Amino acid sequence: MIEFRDVSKVYDHNGNELRAVDHVTLKVDKGEIFGVIGFSGAGKSTLVRMVNQLEKPTEGNILVEGEDLTKLSKPEVRRVRKRIGMIFQHFNLLESKTVRHNVGFPLALVGTPKRVIQKRVTEILEFVGLEDKADQYPEELSGGQKQRVGIARALATSPDILLCDEATSALDPETTKSILQLLKRVRDEYNLTILMITHEMNVIKEVCDKVAVMEKGAVIEQGTIFELFSNPQHQTTQNFIRSVIESDIPASILRGIEKRGAGRHIYRVTFVNETAGEPILSQVSKRFDVDVNVLFGQITELQGIPFGHLVVEIQGEDKEIVKAIDHIQSAVTVQEVYSHAG
Ligand SMILES: Nc1ncnc2c1ncn2[C@@H]1O[C@H](COP(=O)(O)OP(=O)(O)OP(=O)(O)O)[C@@H](O)[C@H]1O
What we know:
Elements: E1 2-13, E2 16-28, E3 33-37, H1 44-49, E4 59-64, E5 67-68, H2 74-81, E6 84-88, H3 99-109, H4 114-127, H5 143-155, E7 161-165, H6 173-190, E8 193-198, H7 201-207, E9 210-215, E10 218-224, H8 225-230, H9 235-242, H10 251-259, E11 265-271, H11 280-287, E12 290-302, E13 305-316, H12 318-330, E14 334-341
Parallel strand pairs: 3-8, 3-9, 6-7, 7-8
Antiparallel strand pairs: 1-2, 1-4, 4-5, 9-10, 11-13, 11-14, 12-13
Helix pairs in contact: 3-4, 3-5, 4-5, 5-6
Adenosine-5'-triphosphate binds at residues 11, 13, 18, 20, 38, 40-46.
Family: Belongs to the ABC transporter superfamily.
Domain ABC transporter: 2-241
Organism: Halobacillus salinus
């Protein structure tokens, strides 16, 4: 649906080259919610702005449903652009126009008959839950309501793709959740493909199917949410994940372990599927001559499926511990076990 093939964008910065996007290759499939995460300045906005040609790549190709944007004429680019909606962090609404006029604006711009606009605006405002706000002005709305107007406006022209540029960054956590749920409905009911950029891992965790992590213009890691959360390779990815799922052993527990001497066997067990939370660890202690103590644990949900870590101590003879660990590793529920004798 959207494909970046070895795309770079180089700006001139006081006579020096600034590589805002550096050889990025990504593929976003139809109907997918694809997140791009990175710190400020990583190149996310530049990347997403190239999809609707607000920026042109310096090198590489960008394909939208097989059409190479870098090879299209201006009228052809305008045609493709019509299939792409965008929402922004600060909503970008017209303050002097009512909600109804804001939402209908993109349709009016292309000369759509008034009657058609009216029907479409009513339909879309109902979808985003703002039918009773049609005649109000943006300043009379909360942040969440303003973003709903932004979403309605983006959907007015029935696009196939929705680009979201930090769409929830100005909102509180509860409102963020409701906007993300709305975006999920947009994908499910209108079958849109959504490309969203954010610096918040909770946004990615909440709605995305796939994610790419950007740093200094480059994509340093990408995959499904499960792949990234269960086996993050890069330090930056690990830090982002740590911001939403605490996997470190809390300091108080660590202090307790240290006090009671070295030579203990501490493991981190990661569960990544529907059997997370099942008593595999208690099975192990029944089957082998070991005791398993859970020191710390956190189970959360990824795409509606439980995901979590347990930090456990296994006590017993070395050979029994090896057997127990083998058993845990052979079970489909365990993705990663690391030992830390300490
Ligand atoms: N039009 C421009 N001219 C020159 N440099 C630019 C331009 N746009 C972006 N940059 C630079 O490109 C780099 C990437 O910026 P970009 O806005 O894409 O990052 P970002 O990850 O979206 O960060 P933020 O969340 O802060 O917007 C930055 O160093 C930025 O200063």
